[in-house]
TrEMBL record:
Organism from which the protein derives: Planctobacterium marinum
The protein's name: GTPase HflX
Gene name in the database record: hflX
Keywords carried by this UniProt record: Cytoplasm, GTP-binding, Magnesium, Metal-binding, Nucleotide-binding
Taxon lineage: Bacteria, Pseudomonadati, Pseudomonadota, Gammaproteobacteria, Alteromonadales
Domain Hflx-type G: 198-365
Xref: Pfam families: GTP-bdg_M (PF16360), GTP-bdg_N (PF13167), MMR_HSR1 (PF01926)
GO MF terms held by the record: GTP binding; GTPase activity; guanosine tetraphosphate binding; metal ion binding; ribosome binding
Key word Cytoplasm present: yes
Length: 428
């Protein structure tokens, strides 16, 4: 039985190059993740393999090299840029005499640091418990046997079995509480649906600039920083768009390649804000040379959470870092906005974004000029109650001439309520 070492500030990073992996980019991302976790990388060990080794993930020679790097730098933790099995983590810890983390554990640790809201903390704890449950045997092998003798006989469970049972009970408790939070979120979504408020959800790769854009549009003070997973808890704000009216803008957690499956499942309640949105603003850091792969990764996660069918508007952010790039709107063959080039940090191109949002959401609006005769004056009250009147006047014969603008759902509901009366008084 070896002593378990607590994770510290000094880390040895390990990245293995595989033939089917974008190694350079993944290594850069590992360094950013480690920096976001507040850990200092004192050495980087790299190598090449065709396939992971069963015992150490790396070969025995490379494992000795990692252990020597730990001793030479007096490191507290070894962080792999890959997913390790519980047995591989245990074998490496015995060899290196320090804590060993894989990519999933590192991301979970960052999430645990950043969670502020009650729901976010529950979701992170759930993901951590599910991850830990397969790794309890590490460092607890001395508790696998039941003790015998007078005063030492227990309830028939080993300590390891007891820990597993307590974990299962805690997971059940968290799932119940998350179900309650999910119901509260669904009630909020239903109330927004009843109010006919369109929802716009910011999505994108982590550190693409979503929170900065959110703050610029809404004049909020959501925490934004040049680090991975600066935002964890979803934030919603109401904004006003010309010719559309009020809309809800939601800032969500960023995505990353190889996002742990437990995290995707745990954050399902949060990601439902994305699923139920009327429009996704897919924010992309175009100053990052990996923007194409990052965009593909976000689309893959959107597909996994069943949000790939939600309309998207691509936001090409950080153009202030690109030489000669000016803000603009790119359109498709039918003239609809598909891309907006801007800098959220500098506030450049925000007016173009708001115009594009108005165009995208106004497709769900109807515009009509009505001539309402005195005999149908009962329609006036319904139109006033919907606050949809843009202009009104009266003709010489007493007809009410009114220009209206409202969500298409409201219009169809009115047509159904008044039968064919509304269609008969449309002038345009």
């Amino acid at each position: 039985m070896f002593d378990r070492y607590e994770a510290g500030e000094q880390a040895v990073l390990v990245h293995i190059y595989f033939s089917d992996e974008q190694s350079k980019e993944d290594l850069q991302e590992l360094q950013m993740l480690v920096s976001s976790a507040g850990v200092n990388a004192v050495d980087i060990v790299t190598g090449s393999r065709q396939n992971p080794a069963p015992k150490y993930f790396v070969g025995s020679g490379k494992a000795e090299e990692i252990a020597n790097a730990v001793r030479a730098n007096n490191a507290d933790v070894v962080i792999f840029n890959h997913s390790l099995s519980p047995s591989q983590e245990r074998n490496l810890e015995q060899l290196c005499k320090c804590r060993v983390l894989d990519r999933t554990s590192l991301i979970l640790d960052i999430f645990a640091q950043r969670a502020r809201a009650h729901e976010g903390k529950l979701q992170v704890e759930l993901a951590q418990l599910k991850h830990i449950s397969t790794r309890l045997v590490r460092g607890w092998t001395h508790l696998e046997r039941q003790k015998g003798g007078i005063g030492l006989r227990g309830p028939g469970e080993t300590q390891l079995e007891t820990d597993r049972r307590l974990l299962r009970e805690r997971i059940k408790s968290i799932l119940k509480r998350l179900q309650k939070v999910q119901k509260q979120r669904e009630q909020g979504r239903r109330s927004r649906d009843r109010a006919e408020l369109p929802t716009i959800s910011l999505v994108g790769y982590t550190n693409a600039g979503k929170s900065t854009l959110f703050n610029t549009i809404t004049a909020s003070e959501v925490y934004a920083a040049d680090q991975l997973f600066a935002t964890l808890d979803p934030t919603l704000r109401k904004i006003q768009l010309q010719d559309v009216g009020a809309a809800i803008l939601a800032d969500t957690v960023g995505f990353i390649r190889h996002l742990p499956h437990d995290l995707v499942a745990a954050f399902k309640a949060t990601l439902q804000e994305t699923q139920s949105a009327d429009l996704l603003l897919h924010v992309v850091d175009y100053s990052d040379e990996r923007f194409r792969e990052n965009t593909d990764q976000v689309n893959a996660v959107l597909n996994e959470i069943e949000a790939s069918d939600v309309p998207q508007l691509l936001i090409c952010n950080k153009i202030d870092r690109l030489e000669g790039m000016q803000p603009r709107i790119d359109r498709d063959d039918e003239g609809r906005p598909i891309r907006v080039w801007l800098s959220a940090q500098q506030g450049v191109g925000i007016d173009l974004l708001l115009n594009a949002l108005t165009e995208c959401l106004s497709e769900k609006m109807v515009h009509h000029r009505l001539r309402v005769p005195p005999a149908l004056a009962r329609i006036k009250g319904a139109l006033y109650s919907l606050n949809c009147i843009a202009h009104e006047a009266y003709s010489d014969n007493g007809d009410w001439l009114v220009d209206i603008r409202m969500p298409a759902k409201d219009w169809h509901r009115l047509v159904k309520h008044f039968d064919a009366d509304l269609n008969s008084i449309i002038e345009d």
